[in-house]
Amino acid sequence: MIYSFQGYIPVVHESSFVHPLAAVTGNVIIGKNCYIGPGAAIRGDWGQIIVEDGVNVQENCTIHMFPGKSITLHENAHVGHGAIIHGANLGRNCLIGMNSVIMDDAVIGEESIVGAMALVKAETVIPKRSLVIGNPAKIVREVNDEMIEWKTKGTELYQQLPKECHETLREVVPLKEVPEQMKVQDDVYKTLRETFNKK
User: Fold this and answer.
1) How far apart are CA 30 and CA 15, in angstroms?
2) Are the C-beta atoms of residues 160 and 141 closer than 8 Å to each other?
3) pLDDT for 23-34, tens place per residue?
4) CB environment 74-108: b (16+ within 10 A), e (fewer)
5) Which GO molecular function annotations are given, in alphabetical order (predicted)?
């Protein structure tokens, strides 16, 4: 669902995938190898939204702003399920946790991690490589190399997803029964806790 608005037509690089159940409106520029999940709403009706290369905006996220503002989700930013980005800028390779809210004129520093359900208040500036949790959100520590490695691997899975969606995602009629030889997906990625406990 891609809509023009007041003459602004979204730009989506051919390598990216916007799910048919997402809504992308107006002055939106989506770079290479981006994934926009079902239920996501990216509304460039009041200002420009730039989604740089390798960004993923997962299911039921909202990206919007006050009139006249423009925002950027920088390269490899990772926006978890249900998050709201309202008039905020996201730094390179940051992670925004599920159902978190990032408010107007906030800046999330590169390689920072915002925990699930955090509220980052308006005009908050989060420095590079900060781990942020809570409501209101507070910096609790610096993000270490292991955490960034884990985050980056997760984002790489989402960067593979657009190609896989273009090649294999199809609307179908559901099966009536579970096939006898139904394959289970490979276990290719662990939680952060599982990753640390294995070392």
Assistant:
1) 10
2) no
3) 999 999 999 999
4) bbbbbbbbbbbbbbbbbbbbbbbbbebbbbbbbbb
5) transferase activity
pLDDT (0 to 100) of residue 198: 56
Taking the C-alpha atoms of residue 52 and residue 32, their distance in angstroms, rounded to an integer, is 7
Using a cut of 0.90, tell me whether the model's pTM lies above it: yes
Q: Which two tokens stand for residue 140?
A: 């609790």
Could you tell me the CA-to-CA distances from 31 to 80, 109, 176, 181 in Å, in that order?
18, 20, 39, 39
CB 70 within 8 A of CB 53: no
Q: Write out the two tokens for 10.
A: 């979204």
Per DSSP (E only), the strands in 39-178 are 41-51, 56-57, 62-64, 71-73, 78-79, 84-86, 89-90, 95-96, 101-102, 107-108, 113-114, 119-120, 125-126, 130-133, 138-142
Identity at 140, one-letter amino acid code: V
